[in-house]
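Predict the 3D structure for this chain.
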Amino acid sequence: MKLQTKAIYNLLRLNAQETSGADVETWALENLRDLSIEVLFQRLSPWGISLDKNYFISFAGECDTPEELTELLLEESVSLKEHDQVYLIIFELWRRILPERQSLSIFCDELDHRIFLYDRGALESDEPIQDILANLQEILDENQDEGEAPVEIFLAISEYCAHDVEGFIYDYITELLDGGDVSYAQELAEGFFPFLPESIWPPFLKARILSFSDPSRANAEVARILDKHPNTETSFLFETLRFLSVSGDHRLFIAVIQKIIAQLQTEEEFEELLEIAADYYRRLDQDDVEMAIERLMKKRSLNTFAFDPRDPDLKVFAQSLK
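Done. Predicted structure below.
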């Protein structure tokens, strides 16, 4: 998937916050939302662009998007670097001065911004993220009504986003279910899943939703998913195990543990597996199994282990289960 220009720079800034020493020029990482409109206009002067709010609105009246306005204001001879510098400024001015004229790039920039704030716990409530998801749903539905293929619509919109929007939707629905908000989780699932590329996650999350009304059928669905995808990734198996530890069939829980044991690659994964299993047997009031697992957990925590798939503790763990 080829990202559009604003999404590329949003992604650069996100990555720079995760890793220090990024070899990227300062202008490419600057958050222009922090600058005043007056400063933004001044930033255009090196390219001979002299604007104020009224002139900006006048020129924008000839364009539908900030991308078109950038092409209108810039000479063709500028370098790609200069083009992008000017574009980012024009984009931010458009976002603030013409909020009623939302292009797809403007909308997706706001979607990225709200996901960023949500992931860092900087939103006072979920209302901003829920509002933007509702707007995204409207965009998807409107394009489908015009005859576009659902998955193609979603993939085209994703090109304008720095975040993995598909992954965010899955994660947010998971959080809603963890918090018991089944109604809204189901609403999002029904609205978005028809537009998302085929994967193992929609059937699993549908099974989780079903578990609140029909646990037996939900477990049968999870078993069917695992049968259909025998070589699924460890991350999915862990998510499945967490679900089964609360709402699952015992035999299915043990079967997933065995699948995970066969795929373990790190000490962190092994200790996470021990923790989930200990919690599970605690819920079952099987103190002997819980204590056996906790002894392993204490042993692992007191030492620095380089994980080995032949580690005898794996066998001890597997034999302690019942």
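The two ends are 46 Å apart (CA to CA).
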